Amino acid sequence: MNKQGRPTSIGGASSSAHETFTGNRALQLEEALLFELDNPGACGVDLDEPEPFTARLGNFERQGRIGLPSVSEPEVVRHYVRLSAKNYSIDAGLYPLGSCTMKHNPRLNEKMARLPGIGDLHPLQPVKTVQGALELMDTLAHWLKELTGMPGVALSPKAGAHGELCGMMAIRAALIARGEDEARSRVLVPESAHGTNPATAALLGYKVDAIPATKEGRVDLEAFKAKLGPDVAAIMLTNPNTCGLFERDIIDIADAVHEAGAYFYCDGANFNAIVGRVRPGDLGVDAMHINLHKTFSTPHGGGGPGAGPVVFSEALAPFAPRPYVVHGADGFRLVETAEDAKADGTTPFGRMTAFHGQMGMFVRALAYMMSHGSDGLRQVAEDAVLNANYVLASLKEDLSAPFEGPCMHEALFDDRFLKGTGVETLDFAKAMIDEGYHPMTMYFPLVVHGALLIEPTETESKQAVDLFIATLKDLARAAKSNDKERFTGAPYLSPRRRLDETAAARSPVLRWVPPAPKQAAE
Questions:
Q1: What is the 3-state secondary structure (H, E, C) of 206-266?
Q2: Looking at residue 287, what DSSP letter applies?
Q3: Structure confidence at residue 4 as a pLDDT band (50, 70, 90)
Q4: By three-state DSSP, how is residue 295 classified?
Q5: Alpha carbon of 295 to those of 149, 159, 462: distances in Å?
Q6: What is the bridge-based pairing of β-strands 310-312 and 152-154?
Q7: Chain CA centroid to CA 264, Å
Q8: Chain-centre distance for alpha carbon 303
Q9: CA-to-CA distance for 302 and 376, rounded, in angstroms?
Q10: CA gap 412, 415 in Å, rounded
Q11: Three-state SS for 331?
């Protein structure tokens, strides 16, 4: 809890707020830190007094308290329940966070992931005891290959960026097999790509060469072709790109890359916009990661668990990492060693994880696919794009769009509509919190000044989207009518006020210390 900058407690939220003895406002409770709930002697469990440790610890035996709070079980439960009630979630309302696809996670998926025999699997079980799990992984792999038009897939990567690393490592393995790894040291990355793309290339030791965007927000085809050469290993392109636009020249880009002897890596984070409508393999893509949490509804955020399978073209499929599932005469088995892979006719570059991937995410994704079917998955993309274009068309008169024409699954605005108001993108987003909305993605993509990136997904109803649109219209008109205080002090109604973010970044308070005892007035 940062004590610097603007006051953060709800007590000072508004000059007209009704004061209460407790600091609570109805059911919005003023929650203390867990350390502040410390009650020496309280405990949620009964533990026997341990035997003396002196003989084993010597002079290292602790002399004072460890510093953890003593709290009873009911107090701990109440504390975390009250904190959870302050969270914003997709179950509470519309989540417009663009580029992350915070879509509804059907409870059916959760039920499937907890079925006996699936929820209690262990990666070290004998293969003969997990035939059903391996069949499930094989079925998921089949669906991913069908939807992308790609003949190979690696299920083990744990996230999108991990999948990028996997795809680029397969590309490097293919270049090594051709004897061209040292000669091809450059990776082309459009300015409209996700930020993890250049980071992944740099991590592998490649020189990153940026490709500028046109005024329409897409890859400059002529600039791209001018950068091609015998030292290019690959292009890492996001499609649809970070501006929410489909790269119209993608087939020409793929043809040029392949003619130059390089490979085409596509960031598939935005596959939600085209699933069932476009197969990346048909566009000339060689490798593409798929965020199961974005496209196929597995939970997102909270530090994991994640899953970022990678699909491969025929040229790269032999280099996909171990382990992978094969179906033989004796049932399903995992190819886990270099010897097994050689016998199977493949040359994997190695392995990405200790085990086989995230089974819980595999189950949720496959449940989502099978419950929708091919026609339903196509409708997912159609509805996501429809909702985003409805937002774009409805708001373009009150906000300002940097690019003309329709978008894909996310609508992008810049800050020109705020010019001269004294209100910035951050202020606008903070005011949305008072209206009950989590802000959209801000200041990203970097190619658009003061960007506001909105993604309603396919799971929101017209009524929900209409209210969201009306709210943003009201905020935009308030900013233009010089109602500056509504923005620069926002949020007023949240559990905590806005921090002085500069001071918080430069002088963060990362450790709680007991407050000094108050002195009586003389």
A1: CEEEEECECCCCCECHHHHHHHCCCCEEEEEEECCCCCCCCCCCHHHHHHHHHHCCCEEEE
A2: E
A3: very low
A4: helix
A5: 16, 13, 21
A6: antiparallel
A7: 23
A8: 10
A9: 28
A10: 10
A11: strand
- Characterize 433-450 residue by residue with b for buried, 16 or more Cβ atoms within 10 angstroms of its Cβ, and e for exposed: bbeebbbbbbbbbebbeb
Q: Are 502 and 8 in contact (CB under 8 A)?
A: no
pLDDT at 305 over 80: no
Whole-angstrom Cα Rg for the chain: 27
Q: 């900013």: which residue's tokens? A: 479
Residue 511: pLDDT band (50, 70, 90) is confident
- Of 436, 466, 437, 434, which Cα lies nearest the Cα of 452? 437
Sign of CA dihedral 285, 286, 287, 290: positive
The pLDDT-based confidence of 514 (bands split at 50, 70, 90) is confident
Looking at residue 13, its pLDDT comes to 45
Rounded to an integer, what distance in angstroms lies between the CA atom of residue 189 and that of residue 174? 20
267 neighbors 237 (Cβ within 8 angstroms) = yes
Q: CA-CA distance, 219 to 191, in Å (whole number)?
A: 8
Residue recorded with tokens 């329940």: 81
Asked whether 200 and 161 are in contact (CB, 8 A), the reply is: yes
Average pLDDT, the chain: 91
Cis peptide before 69 (omega within 30 of 0): no
**Residue 62: Cβ-neighbour burial (10 angstroms; 0-12, 13-18, 19+):** exposed
Q: What is the pLDDT of residues 170-225, one digit of tens each?
A: 999 999 999 999 999 999 999 988 889 999 999 999 999 999 999 999 999 999 99
Identify the pLDDT of residue 1: 36
φ/ψ of 188, rounded to 5, equals -90, 130
pTM equals 0.89
Is the Cα torsion angle 479, 484, 489, 493 positive or negative in sign? negative
Instruction: Please state the separation of Cα 492 from the chain's center in Å.
Output: 28
